[in-house]
Amino acid sequence: MPTIEQIERIFKVHPAPSSQPAKQAAVILPLVTIGGQTHVLFQTRAHTLKKQPGETCFPGGHVEPFDDTVAHAAIRECTEELGLAQTDITMIAPLPKVEAPHQQLVIHPYLANIRDVHQITIDPSEVADWFTIPLAYLLTNPPQIGHFNVTVEPAEDFPIEKIANQGGYIRRTYMLQEYFYTYKGRTVWGLTARILQQFLSHLQQEMTSSDPL
Q: Where is the Nudix hydrolase domain (predicted)?
């Protein structure tokens, strides 16, 4: 059996790798200028897609093995879905990642600027349409907050009898919070709304700080 000294040497020379999610995705939160005003661009998923048809989302998709970086995946997906050239997209900064544990998925969002919305030509197999919401509207109209309950029930292979507090894990219910942004009949919610809310919250905080940039 290894001694503590041997274990120490192993972990100092070869640190344990961080666990990686089964799937990683990258999206772009696109800022555009329309009529001299800053807008946030969204797209509607094609109604023919198997997953989340008709839902509002940001341009993006899964990180593929051939992507050089996660940021490259975000740009690649955006160019494919909106028919843009890479030169039409200017990356600004990464945003906090968002996790979807039930999907074993981590989403890496990036803030970016699309230079000219007139260059957009959607891929109808992936995108039904696109629309924008003025940033000023989003900053002055807080989202509606809703909740839904998620009940966790042990599966047949879960050894519940080995746990001291068995009753606390049988049909355990968690309450999850969701944000809903609405504008002219459009609704933004789910992971897209979580990414948007984090962006808006940070922007508002920095804009109202005592020493704004």
A: 21-156
